[in-house]
């Protein structure tokens, strides 16, 4: 049974870009607008313990690269423990939200440790090597095929410093596939509001609708934000291709990345095919 919708309060902020130019592929097709980016940030706040997990593994690192930086949720904990943090994302509106977040939440010295760049997971080329590269909160599943995964892992391997680590987490496809085999009806949404939030002076109810194509390992999700008082509904579509742990480990190995730890949660729980999360630490090797 789904829990009752929770209420979240937000306040939109303003800011300007702070950073430098990097050699990276920029996507020119339209993406999220400002309102969509704000609503996305309010409904994608990570998992309990994930910020602490990434900060723990990045403590003392000279350079950290976060792929899929989004609205900058992890920038504060990462920049508190590392000398320099670079955040990469392909969505301009999310990068703008990250810049606003930096201005609101960080002092000048800490904010100066952060650089933001627009680019693609599969083709980024940055001038420095990194001690840690992190790809949190299911962002790996935004790569919609094995070739895209392989290109991403190859770029990670190329940008890692010697003895550098690559860290990521996804919801466990092993567990999901097992649940599909156990249920004749397959995957269904229950139709209830996922969450209720307050933003820009009004209440929004958020609904989730998913489309499963198990033969292609696709689970695409449509979020619909319905205002209670005024204005039109807002929709955000997220395309996902999930991958079981064995597939990910094979592709990592082919890219020259060796898995050194695999957890079922952010408190280093032992992983099993029934774990809710897959939390991976890999190294060049």
Features:
Rossmann fold; single chain; five-stranded mixed β-sheet; alpha/beta; 12 strands; 2 domains; 285 residues
Description:
With 285 residues, this protein is α/β, with parallel strands linked by helices. It folds into two domains: 13-171 and 243-284, Vaccinia Virus protein VP39 (Rossmann fold, 3-Layer(aba) Sandwich); 175-238, no CATH class. The protein contains eight helices and twelve strands. Strand 5 (130-135), helix 6 and strand 6 (160-171) form a beta-alpha-beta unit. The longest helix has 14 residues, at 92-105. The radius of gyration is 19 Å and the shape is globular. The termini are far apart.
Summarize it.
The chain has 285 residues and is α/β, with parallel strands linked by helices.
Q: Report on the biggest sheet.
A: 7 strands, mixed
The amount of beta strand, in percent, is 25-35%
Averaging pLDDT over every residue, what do you get? 86
Outline, from the CA principal axes? globular
Listing every helix as H and every strand as E from the N terminus to the C terminus, the arrangement reads: EHHEHEHHEEHEHEEEEHEE
Helix content: 25-40%
Q: Please tell me the CATH architecture of the largest domain by its name.
A: 3-Layer(aba) Sandwich
**Taking Cα atoms only, what radius of gyration do you get, to the nearest Å?**
19 Å
Please tally the β strands and state the result. 12
The DSSP helix count reads: 8
Lateral strand order in the biggest sheet: 4-3-2-5-6-12-11
Structural class: alpha/beta
What is the CA-CA span between the terminal residues?
44 Å
Look at the structure and name the CATH superfamily of the largest domain.
Vaccinia Virus protein VP39
Low-confidence regions: 1-30
What is the name of the CATH class of the largest domain? Alpha Beta
How many domain modules? Answer: 2
Stated plainly, the CATH topology of the largest domain is called: Rossmann fold
């Amino acid at each position: 049974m789904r829990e009752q919708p929770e209420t979240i309060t937000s306040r939109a902020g303003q800011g300007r870009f702070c950073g430098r130019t990097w050699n990276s592929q920029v996507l020119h097709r339209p993406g999220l607008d400002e309102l969509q980016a704000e609503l996305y940030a309010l409904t994608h706040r990570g998992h309990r313990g994930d910020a602490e997990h990434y900060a723990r593994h990045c403590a003392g690192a000279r350079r950290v690269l976060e792929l899929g930086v989004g609205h900058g949720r992890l920038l504060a904990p990462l920049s508190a423990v590392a000398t320099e943090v670079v955040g990469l994302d392909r969505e301009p509106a999310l990068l703008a939200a990250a810049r606003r977040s930096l201005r609101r939440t960080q002092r000048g010295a800490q904010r100066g440790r952060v650089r933001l760049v627009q680019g693609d997971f599969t083709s980024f080329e940055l001038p420095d090597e990194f001690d840690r590269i992190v790809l949190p909160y299911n962002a790996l599943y935004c790569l919609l095929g094995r070739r895209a995964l392989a290109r991403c892992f190859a770029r990670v391997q190329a940008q890692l410093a010697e003895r550098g680590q690559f860290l990521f987490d996804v919801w466990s496809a092993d567990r999901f596939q097992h649940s599909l085999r156990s249920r004749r009806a397959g995957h269904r949404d229950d139709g209830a509001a996922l969450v209720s939030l307050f933003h820009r002076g009004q209440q929004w109810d958020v609904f989730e609708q998913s489309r499963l194509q198990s033969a292609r390992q696709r689970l695409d999700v449509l979020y619909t934000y319905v205002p209670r008082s005024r204005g039109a509904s807002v929709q955000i579509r997220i395309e996902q291709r999930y991958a079981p742990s064995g597939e990910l480990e094979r592709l990592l190995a082919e890219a020259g990345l060796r898995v050194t730890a695999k957890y079922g949660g952010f408190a280093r729980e032992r992983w099993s095919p029934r774990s809710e999360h897959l939390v991976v630490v890999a190294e060049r090797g």
